[in-house]
Amino acid sequence: MNRREAVRRLALLMGGVMIGSEVFLSGQSAPDKGPMPAFSDADRALLDKIGDTIVPKTDIPGAADVGIGAFMVMMVNECYSEKQHAIFQDGLAKINAASTAKYGATFDKLTPAQRTDFANALDAEQKAYTLKKTKDQPTHYFRMMKELSVLGFFSSEIGCTQAVRYIEVPGAYHGDIAYKKGDHAWY
Q: Which of residues 13 and 93 earns the better pLDDT score?
């Protein structure tokens, strides 16, 4: 099985919880999708910057190092409805417009501190929106981007082996392992 197939299967397993829960809870099947507007290389690069702001590089690689932009594009194209796809793409334009209005530059041209500040403001906006949203309202675009950044990073090889402690299965079961403050979680 190649990585793309593994990610697709993982997305199907995780999709009901993270992405498609509204469809499952409402008991509706997803509609057939027509052709979706394509993402450009600039969109992928912007998604890499957004993902890297959400999961930044520290002593381990960040989201951009795992190609999070390509992962997000694949997930949006293959797993999201037309309405969600449109919200996601409109969100990219909104991010650049708001960034230009606030800082005089597009998101990808901002300093890391400015990107973090801007992402924190977007996160606060999406949290307030989520608290007030009704069942019929769509998910906020930044929430989609955060969920995909975290899912993509922690389902990548780097996320699974470097961000958390990893022991390949099969292996012996050790139910009582000492935990020291600051240790990575187990995967």
A: 93
pLDDT tens-place string over residues 109-119: 999 999 999 99
Which residues touch 111 (CB under 8 Å, ≥6 apart)? Answer: none
Structure tokens at 122: 């977007």
Q: Structure tokens of 54?
A: 């959400």
Question: What is the model's pLDDT at position 167?
Answer: 67
Tell me the domain boundaries of the chain.
3-163
Long-range contacts, stretch 117-121, CB < 8 angstroms, 24+ apart: 119/50, 119/53, 119/54
53 alpha-carbon distance from chain centroid: 11
**pTM attached to this predicted model:** 0.71
46 burial (CB, 10 Å; 0-12 / 13-18 / 19+) is buried
User: What are residue 186's phi and psi, to 5 degrees?
Assistant: -90, 150
Place of tokens 């022991």: 167
- Residue 178 corresponds to which tokens in the numbers above? 């000492």
Q: Is 129 left (phi over 0), alpha (psi -120 to 50) or beta?
A: alpha
Find the mean pLDDT for residues 101-125. 94
